[in-house]
Amino acid sequence: MKYLVAIVLLAGTLANFDFQAAAQARTQPRAQLRLKENRSERLTSEGLALLQQGKNRLALLKFEEAIRLDARNANAYAGAALLYLKDNKIEAAHRYAETALRLQPQNARAHFVAAQVLLQEHKKLAAFDHLRKAVRYSAGQPDEAEANRLLARFRNENPKLLQLAAPQVATPALPPANDTSAALSHRPLLAVFPFSAVHSDSAEHSLGKTLAEMLTTALINRNNYRIIERNQLERVFQEQALGQSGALESETAVAVGNILGVQAVVVGTLSKPAQAFEADARILNVSTGEAMTACYAKGSSSAQLRQMAETLAAEIAGKAALVQSAVRRDSAKTAVEN
Fold it and tell me: Which of 124, 157, 190 is the last residue of a domain?
């Protein structure tokens, strides 16, 4: 009996040891990973300090080592991108900035570098959008003054690029109330752009595009507007090099709306302030750049994005008459002024 008890106790001890060993084996890689991440963050901070001191070569070594330790360190990629730009290594600067933005869409320094690369490639509209983001996301940071300076210079050098264009054709009179086919053809022409993520989470950034696509489908089904197809948007995005910029700034969206020949554009934000998702959408008048109306939707999880899109579509559809009236009035006014 004593031997039996001893065997049971020994088996229990061994089982407990195996459990602890397995738990330690699982914990150890996580601990090592965290040590690498911490070391990467310290190297990035050291690199930024060296950058401020003008010691660019040493700073680049710090950033590259930080990236080697943690391939998801967006700030290290952005710092390296800036140094490659300073060294006129445009291809490397472009690649590193693009990686930083994929990891952290709200990285101000990466937007700043991307803007300057695109300016050298004469892709001015995309450069402007990145500059706007650089200014917005650098608020309170050391790069804010430089981003504002470059944006002001860009506006002075390109006064016509963002000038609101007059309608290409005169706006026809409203059709008779009983003329259904004519009424359908005179519905406002609308483009829906990807929603921007309020936070820097790249997953949330992707959901903003998904929400816009769902909203486009919902609006097409409601038939209150004529909607620009996705392939037309993608063609303009590609022509203007707007693909890596993500969701557009309002001013850029209006400029793209003019290129597309639409009367209004939908822009918006997707955020997750607590446990729920919140979407805010605005309809901008392409003739004036002003917001004509706004709407809001909320969902408890990403699984409710479709429901949120339907909620937004219902509100936007309900305001079609208001939008139509506003674009007619402002289009006519702009045509007279021009």
Answer: 157
Mean pLDDT of 307-322: 94
Q: Is residue 170 situated within a structural domain?
A: no
Q: For 183-211, what is each residue's pLDDT tens digit?
A: 455 789 999 999 988 765 556 678 888 99
The stretch 15-24 carries a mean pLDDT of 48
Distance CA 49, CA 130 (A): 25
Cα-atom radius of gyration of the chain, to the nearest Å?
Answer: 26
Helix-then-strand count for the chain, H and E? 13, 6
Instruction: Encode burial over 52-64: b for 16+ CB neighbours within 10 A, e otherwise.
Output: eeeeeeebbbbbb
Please indicate, yes or no, whether residues 323 and 257 belong to a single structural domain of this protein. Answer: yes
How many C-beta neighbours within 10 Å does residue 207 have?
A: 20
CB atoms within 10 A of CB 127: 25
Domain that holds residue 111: 34-157
In terms of DSSP bridges, do strands 196-197 and 264-271 run parallel, antiparallel, or are they unpaired?
A: parallel
Identify whether residues 106 and 190 lie together within a single domain: no
User: Residue 271's domain is classified under what CATH number?
Assistant: 3.40.50.10070
Considering the domain architecture, whether residues 64 and 142 belong to the same structural domain is answered as yes
DSSP-derived letter for residue 271 is: E
What average pLDDT score do residues 290-308 get? 92
**Which residue pairs from 110-115 have beta carbons closer than 8 angstroms and sit at least 24 positions apart in sequence?**
110/74, 110/77, 110/78, 110/81, 111/137, 112/82, 112/138, 112/143, 112/146, 112/147, 112/150, 113/78, 113/81, 113/82, 113/85, 114/244, 114/245, 115/150
Close Cβ partners of 283 (under 8 Å, ≥ 6 residues apart): 190, 264, 265, 266, 291, 292, 293, 294, 316, 319, 323
- Residue 166's pLDDT is what? 38
User: Which range, of 157-171, 279-293, 320-334, averages the lowest pLDDT?
Assistant: 157-171
% of the chain surpassing 90 pLDDT:
55
Looking at this protein, which amino acid is placed at residue 247?
Answer: A
Location of structure tokens 């804010």: 144
